[in-house]
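Quick illustration, no need to memorize.
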Amino acid sequence: MKHRYIKTMCLVAFFDIIHASFPTGTTPLMIASTNINPFDMFSLLQTDTTINEQNSEGQTALILSVEFNRPLNTAVLLGHNADKNQENNAGETALEIAIEDDNFVLIQILSAP
């Protein structure tokens, strides 16, 4: 548990220091959305991070959580008002990616009102 706390604090400190994104537009929240455990996302969502920010490929944290098959992260992001209708540069939404991958769990999460 202490390791996760230190890792999260490093992510938060990194975000606070540069308060920006990598050259590709990838943000710490996007990186956290691909992790198995959503713990890092909770800390980042407490900052003034932009949840629907897109990287150079048009991916958002929500889209990345779907691409990496992270249902819990997807639910957390939706609970923090991530835009499930936002499209990547290929014109795909998170739901369309889940459908393409035949990921029934994510389809249910993304289809919920």
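The helical segments are 2-18, 28-33, 39-45, 61-67, 71-79, 94-100, 104-111.
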